[in-house]
Design brief:
This protein has 315 residues and is α+β, with helices and mostly antiparallel strands. It contains twelve helices and twelve strands. The radius of gyration is 19 Å and the shape is globular. The structure holds cytidine-5'-monophosphate.
Length: 315
């Protein structure tokens, strides 16, 4: 078959702690990642001839090699040149539903779906781990975006431990459409302001990771204790992104005052989310926030936790 359609799920971080510097220039992290029902649709198909063509009608999505999905296809062609020569070029079409520059891993999710789609298209039979190893060469969030569900992510974010999947929870997402935050900026600013507090990873990194494994967040997830998870939400990057963007601080306050189990910024932001136990509660919070902050630039979404990252759809 020459065409595959995939759902590429957004993610939120229920926990993000920055431990310290890594020798590769990245940060050593501990994160709890959660897939959402909010998802892009990615179609991958072969075309006669060669080359990679990316189609997306969202004006802010790049269509060239700066797009992570394009780079995922290029990496597959470079890694499997015989398959690329045999099957011809690749057309990638992205139906964008995940807000961009949002801290929701939309670009990483599209790249994850492209890797899975080309593996099917070229009948490579790669394992999930092999696909995740390829994804890790392109971005720290891509391995999680492939498998999805609920996971503890360490290292750069690419080392994954699958956790007991959280089900039945809803998230209200709030994001100013015209605002996006650069992830490198967020980490560089954090390093400049909090670098002195970084752990010496050689002596203390393993202890800190072990403490998280036996800590309250892992316990709350194991027991599906959503009230406790709401109380334990944490993201170190809030310390640099919120002071730089007062509108996001105001949004976080408004969302938190509207109710729910807990409110947090996702990843490097600027999306803020509130967790709830029911869809009706999530919709009521979205309405209340909209009434409190009646700005046409503010986008609000209600979505559910999802058990999977990339999912094959009927063609
Ligand atoms: O891996 P990814 O391309 O998503 O990372 C984007 C940027 O975020 C990196 O270039 C780096 O500046 C920062 N980052 C980091 N440590 C991580 C993940 C990302 O410093 N573990």
């Amino acid at each position: 078959m020459g065409l595959y359609k995939l759902r590429a799920a957004a993610k939120i971080n229920l926990y993000l702690e920055i431990l310290g510097h890594r020798s590769d220039g990245f940060h050593e992290l501990i994160m709890v990642m959660q897939s959402l029902d909010l998802a892009d649709r990615v179609t991958v198909k072969s075309h006669v001839g060669s080359g990679i063509y990316l189609h997306c009608d969202h004006p802010q999505v790049p269509k060239d090699h700066t797009n992570l999905a394009y780079r995922a296809a290029a990496l597959m062609a470079q890694t499997f040149p015989q398959a690329a020569a045999h099957h011809g070029g690749v057309d990638i079409t992205i139906d964008k539903k995940i807000p961009i520059g949002a801290g929701l891993a939309g670009g990483s999710a599209d790249a994850a779906a492209t890797l899975v789609g080309i593996d099917l298209l070229w009948q490579l039979g790669l394992t999930q781990q092999e696909l995740q190893d390829l994804g890790a060469q392109l971005g720290s969030d891509i391995p999680f975006c492939i498998s999805g569900g609920t996971a503890l992510a360490t290292g750069r974010g690419e080392q994954l431990d699958t956790l007991h999947g959280l089900t039945g929870l809803y998230a209200v997402l709030g994001k100013y459409n015209s605002l996006s935050v650069s992830t490198p900026w967020a980490y560089q600013t954090y390093r400049a302001q909090f670098g002195e507090t970084y752990l010496d990873l050689a002596t203390m990194g393993a202890d800190r990771r072990a403490a998280i494994h036996s800590g309250p967040m892992m316990g709350a997830i194991a027991h599906q204790d959503s009230a406790k998870i709401g109380q334990l939400l944490h993201n170190d990057l809030e310390k640099v992104v919120l002071p730089a963007h007062p509108a996001v601080t105001e949004l976080k306050t408004a969302m938190s005052q509207a109710g729910g189990l807990g409110t947090l910024m996702s990843g490097s932001g600027p999306t803020v989310f509130t967790l709830t136990q029911t869809q009706s509660e999530a919709e009521a919070i979205a309405q209340q926030v909209k009434a409190h902050l009646p700005d046409p630039d503010l986008g609000l979404w209600v979505t559910q936790f999802a058990p999977i990252g990339v999912q094959l759809m009927p063609a």
